[in-house]
Amino acid sequence: MAGERIALGVACAQTNPKILAKKENLETILQVIDEASGKGADVIIFPECALTGYCFATLEEVRSVAEPLDGPSVGAVAARCKERGVHAIVGMVEASGERYYNVAVLVGPKGLVGNYRKTHLPFLGLDKLATRGENPYRTHQVGKASVGMLICYDAAFPEASRILALHRADLVVLPTNWPIGAECSAEVGVRARAWENNIFMAACNRTGEERGFRFIGQSQIVGPAGNVLAKAGKMEETVIYAEIDLSVARNKRTVNIPGEFEINRIEDRRVDLFGDILKRYPI
Predict the structure, then answer these.
(1) Which of 13, 148, 171, 281 is most buried as measured by Cβ atoms within 10 A of its Cβ?
(2) What is the C-alpha to C-alpha distance for residues 106 and 140, in angstroms, rounded to an integer?
(3) Model's pTM, two decimal places?
(4) Is the pLDDT of residue 2 over 60?
């Protein structure tokens, strides 16, 4: 049986970030925080590289928009979150010495809560130039919710979502830049990750076109049964909302017919047979 209802208001902002236009993109982020907080959102999620754009051609371009995590853009988001009493998750480029990371920052009323550096890098856009993240997959507290972060291609590796679920994530957020060719991620992948782990997933994609790449939108908030709670279309800039019940993610036992048909995708794992998953095999 599910426990007492624990509500969290989630918003995904499907925006159209402009490459190398950090000031303009930041203004959009702040405006959306104002709008979404007024509609009951507790946590507002933005796309991968929402602050900077994604399709960089050179390392010099990356360097020109990168900031440390204590830089002015995170500071501006934190100030707005404090004013509105909400949390936001924003994709950007992090500068750390001579390294540059594709990062999602979790910011709240008290400032920076946590960050996640993308660990799986496809040969595309910023990720051709970025350093691979080595963050462990860990959760952060957002009010009463335990929230994990991944970025785009990370969701193609089910182990990452599973680790977050094992760390008791209620909600896994996925800032992403799905271009044409990534339709399966939008149509199947997010729902599968939610269903197999009995967690909520919130995937926030961008829309629009950038340097010849067309992005497919379809941001979505998905429930633990793989059920879509809210979904955006492919083309429009929009904000989608859902109120989720954290107690549903915390109850891992699915009772279809009491005493006849019950499953638990966490407890029922045969970890004694999973040793090969740590090995690398030639493809």
Answers:
(1) 13
(2) 9
(3) 0.96
(4) no
